[in-house]
Write the structure tokens for this entry.
Amino acid sequence: MAEIETKGADAYILGRKLAFDESVHAMQARLSQIYAGVENIQAALAGVSPLAPIGYSASEQAVPGVTWIDGSQVYQITLVGATGSVLNTYNLTGRSIPNLGTLISMAGEVVNGTGSQVPVNHLQHTGFCFDFSGNLQEMHDNANYSSKPFTVTVLYTKAGG
């Protein structure tokens, strides 16, 4: 990060004059926020932050110290199964999340007929969603995706809190 240098009421970065006194403090505060956010993202990716996903499990787990915008506890679960056999219709996967509230994120993969790992949200040939009862459904438009294994990790809240 290039340091902001102040000379009197003026601010310079890499030798170029930027701004005057009050805007310098606002700029430094905003840069600090941005860099703190970047550091949090880097820590999460490295797995050393409470914002990082907890270990993957087929059992529902509360993500320690993480709440949604409305203050609800965030949970994580990994669902494993196989896609349905019917093309161009929603196929129930037999997997569900009882009392599903807000769906925060869903990531995973389907292994298609050629052995390629395709993201569950690819939507070109396959897609996943939850119905109002919390049942995981998938739809595909190509036989290469019929009766194929999938893994989906979901972050969510529970209905009513």
Remarks:
- Helices lie at 21-46.
- The mean pLDDT is 81.
- The longest helix spans residues 21-46.
- The chain has two domains: 4-46, 61-158.
